[in-house]
């Protein structure tokens, strides 16, 4: 531990930055990573070791950062990152959302942040943010050295007067900002997300081919599939558990009806 630990062990496998914590889960070789950039996600032991170096392929890990970071915004469970996640990325099976989806995802995140305190109204709430840490919420790449992608996504929210700069001396690129009446109107009138998550609950043993078939089908439609763990479910590869154990796998997509 501490100083004896190799540097790679203290870095997030998705963004390459120092994580806040990554304790092993009880009775498991998996870890629960808390990262200021990627949020909270679980990672299995194989992925932890195989993909320790951020410089190694796959290089577009920001797509996985986006899936882990936006899980609470999308209302899905904590994402379990496994070697399958990296292989899917390498094979181009993790779809990058289009511009409109990313712009909506960013507005959704500001709404999520606005609603965080149930004791006060979300309307008019000032939100601080840091693009260098919050870039995954818009499915962006890391901002250094080039901020143009982030600006391209966020600027239209100001141009369309869905977001407005607040006062308070913050730097323009960091807020504070607030969602305007027009922004809330769009958020609340917009058709609800449709088919964003399909949950598949199944016995953990010998059912992987079924899941793979479902995931492959969704991939053909251009939707990424990521296995997500939940608080009350157990995951596969735990042969000592009874066959009544189920796991839940989420097939996720950024598609919305519009
Ligand atoms: Zn990270």
Characterization of the model:
The structure is a single chain. With 258 residues, this protein is α+β, with helices and mostly antiparallel strands. It folds into two domains: 154 residues, no CATH class; 91 residues, Arc Repressor Mutant, subunit A. The chain contains nine helices and eight strands. A three-stranded mixed sheet has the order 1-2-3. A hairpin with a 3-residue loop joins β1 and β2. α5 packs across α7. The radius of gyration is 19 Å and the shape is globular. It binds zinc ion (ZN).
- DSSP helical segment count: 9
Shape: globular
Q: How confident overall, as mean pLDDT? A: 79
What's the end-to-end separation, in Å? 51 Å
How many beta-strand segments?
Answer: 8
Tell me the count of domains. Answer: 2
Main beta sheet strand tally, sense and closure: 3 strands, mixed
Secondary structure class reads alpha+beta
SSE series: EEHHHEHHHHEEHEHEE
Low-confidence stretches: 194-206, 215-226, 228-258
Fraction of residues in H or I helices:
25-40%
Oligomer: single chain
- Over the alpha carbons, how many angstroms does the gyration radius reach? 19 Å
Strand content: 5-15%
Order of strands across the main sheet: 1-2-3
């Amino acid at each position: 531990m501490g100083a004896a630990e190799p540097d790679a062990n203290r870095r997030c496998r998705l963004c390459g930055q120092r994580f806040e914590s990554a304790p092993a889960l009880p009775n498991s070789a998996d870890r629960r990573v808390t990262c200021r950039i990627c949020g909270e996600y679980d990672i299995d032991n194989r992925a932890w070791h195989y993909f320790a170096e951020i410089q190694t392929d796959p290089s577009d890990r920001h797509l996985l950062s986006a899936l882990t970071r936006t899980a609470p915004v999308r209302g899905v469970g904590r994402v379990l990152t496994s070697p399958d996640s990296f292989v899917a990325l390498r094979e181009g099976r993790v779809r990058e959302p289009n511009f409109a989806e990313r712009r909506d995802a960013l507005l959704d995140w500001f709404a999520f942040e606005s609603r965080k305190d149930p004791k006060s109204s979300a309307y008019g709430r000032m939100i601080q943010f840091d693009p260098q840490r919050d870039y995954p919420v818009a499915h962006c790449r890391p901002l250094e050295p080039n901020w143009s992608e982030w600006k391209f996504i966020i600027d239209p929210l100001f141009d369309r007067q869905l977001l407005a700069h607040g006062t308070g001396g913050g730097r323009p690129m960091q807020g504070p900002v607030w969602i305007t009446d027009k922004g809330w109107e769009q958020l609340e009138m917009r058709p609800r997300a449709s088919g964003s998550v399909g949950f598949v609950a199944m016995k953990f043993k010998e059912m992987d081919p079924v899941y793979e078939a479902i995931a492959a089908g969704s991939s053909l439609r251009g939707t990424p599939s990521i296995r997500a763990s939940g608080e009350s479910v157990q995951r596969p590869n735990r042969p000592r558990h009874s066959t009544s154990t189920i796991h839940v796998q989420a097939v996720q997509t950024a598609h919305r009806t519009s």
